[in-house]
Amino acid sequence: MKKIAFLLPLAAGACAAPAVRAPVGRVVQTYPSVGLERILGQNAAGLVQLFGQPDADVREGTARKLQFAGPICVLDAYLYPKATGGAGAEPHVTYLDTREPDGSSIDRASCVAALTRREGGR
Q1: Residues with Cβ < 8 Å from 81, sequence gap 6 or more?
Q2: Average pLDDT of the segment spanning 83-103
Q3: Which of 15, 42, 53, 85 has the fewest C-beta atoms under 10 angstroms from its C-beta?
Q4: Helix, strand or coil, per DSSP, at residue 97
């Protein structure tokens, strides 16, 4: 009889529903766009006019990345065509990333300001 009393809680536990975990949300980091008005929405020609010739020009499908490097920082501008622009729509900057030459972080607006003062930029 003692064996049955011992096994009864184990059997009941096996029938219980598993614990449901709440979904873990992804933290979305937002970046301020103050000081980036000259860049966001620009096309490739506008970037070249502002910074000079890019140090790298990478294309993948309809997307394009232009990279501008200077002694202070490196800027990667990501250009995509507008979703409503249809076939042949010109890509424009929708996102940009900046870093110091050693890879550490730098404020995006500060990098834009530094690159506009580099040789070849305006």
Answers
A1: 62, 89, 90, 91, 92
A2: 86
A3: 15
A4: strand
